[in-house]
Write a structure and sequence with these properties.
- Helix content is 44%, strand content 14%.
- It has 13 helices and ten strands.
- The strands form two sheets. The chain has a six-stranded mixed β-sheet with strand order 1-2-10-7-8-9. It has a four-stranded parallel β-sheet with strand order 5-4-3-6, sandwiched between helices.
């Protein structure tokens, strides 16, 4: 789940899309040996009545099972020798924690992952197996994050945000660099949105190198936080309801750099119901045997429900992860 806290705008934010795009490209060159170039697979059979080529970018096959490894790897690669020797801290009950733990192990540095009391035992075990220390704090992800940030401030260690960090955003954006060679005739890309780091990075690169590609933001209707912030033009409190798209749920950090970036790169927004998410998760399981996260199903449901506008074109759906919680697995 995406956490929220009081924060500040990250320093040295690129001023224009060209700077963002160049940053993503240089990041790709840096982390390319450390992450998997995930495959693209045609899935047009899910909507045979539509004259559209539908492709899926399978980040569920990334190491750790989600795209989060990319941003964590780039952040750790950008640290100074002093920062690396001190180790890093993150807060996450899920994919971000796995990504930071794996990236830290690969770099040979120590990592502490703060989790709430409701963390899945299987997720906590996987984080520990990757060599990170689990620190339990509070009843909610927000309480765990605040504890992690305090510990980072007191110890002088770097705290790695799941989205409000330009190095993390650039790491997630490397997906778009791969797409340019895997699907050069792309017309649109559908991406689930939480804090905005993923779609911000992907969109920044595409707007720089292939501005004709439509970037579609996809939200669970029960958790439209950044969607409502974009409509308001500022970060606001947004009421949420429980959602199967666990990894995109939660509030937005104050002064998050993703608000301005996403305003520039998202061309269109789609909201998806819980019934649509669950239906797609079951459909892709039955047709392909894939167990995908609710967030991935948000993007897939948004694309399949709106194909008529892309007649004769090629669209890409980002399958952002495949790490399901026991609760969501039970629903499927």
């Amino acid at each position: 789940m995406k956490e929220a806290s009081e924060s500040v705008r990250p320093p040295n934010v690129p001023e224009d899309i060209a700077e963002w795009g160049a940053l993503v490209l240089s990041t790709y060159q840096r982390i390319r040996p450390l992450v998997v170039e995930t495959p693209v697979e045609p899935i047009s059979y899910l909507a045979p009545e539509a004259s559209v080529q539908v492709l899926a970018k399978l980040e569920n096959l990334q190491k750790t099972g989600s795209f989060k490894l990319r941003g964590a790897t780039n952040k750790i690669a950008s640290l100074s020798s002093h920062q690396r020797s001190a180790g890093v801290i993150a807060a996450s009950n899920g994919n971000h924690g796995l990504g930071v733990a794996s990236a830290a192990r690969n770099a040979g540095i120590a990592a502490q992952i703060y989790v709430s009391s409701h963390v899945s035992p299987s997720k906590a075990s996987r984080i520990e197996q990757l060599g990170a220390a689990i620190c339990r704090a509070g009843e909610t992800p927000l309480e765990a994050e605040l504890a992690g940030r305090r510990a980072a401030t007191e110890s002088g260690k770097v705290f790695i945000s799941p989205y409000n960090d330009i190095d993390v955003i650039a790491g997630q954006g490397t997906i778009a660099v791969e797409l340019q060679t895997q699907a050069p005739a792309l017309d649109a890309v559908f991406v689930a949105v939480g804090g905005g780091g993923l779609i911000g990075g992907i969109g920044a690169y595409l707007k720089w190198i292939a501005p004709h590609v439509e970037v579609v933001g996809c939200w669970a209707r029960n958790s439209p936080v950044l969607y409502e912030c974009l409509r308001a033009g500022q970060i606001v409190d947004v009421p949420e309801q429980p959602t199967l798209s666990e990894s995109t749920a939660g509030g937005l950090e104050a002064e998050s750099v993703t608000l301005g970036l996403c305003k520039r790169v998202i061309d269109r927004s789609v909201l998806v119901s819980e019934d649509e998410i669950l239906t797609i998760m079951r459909k892709i399981r039955d047709r392909k045997g894939w167990l995908i996260e609710g967030a991935a199903a948000v993007a897939l449901a948004a694309a399949l429900g709106d194909l008529t506008r892309y007649h004769g074109k090629t669209v890409m759906v980002l399958i952002c992860g495949g790490n399901l919680s026991p609760e969501v697995s039970g629903r499927i």
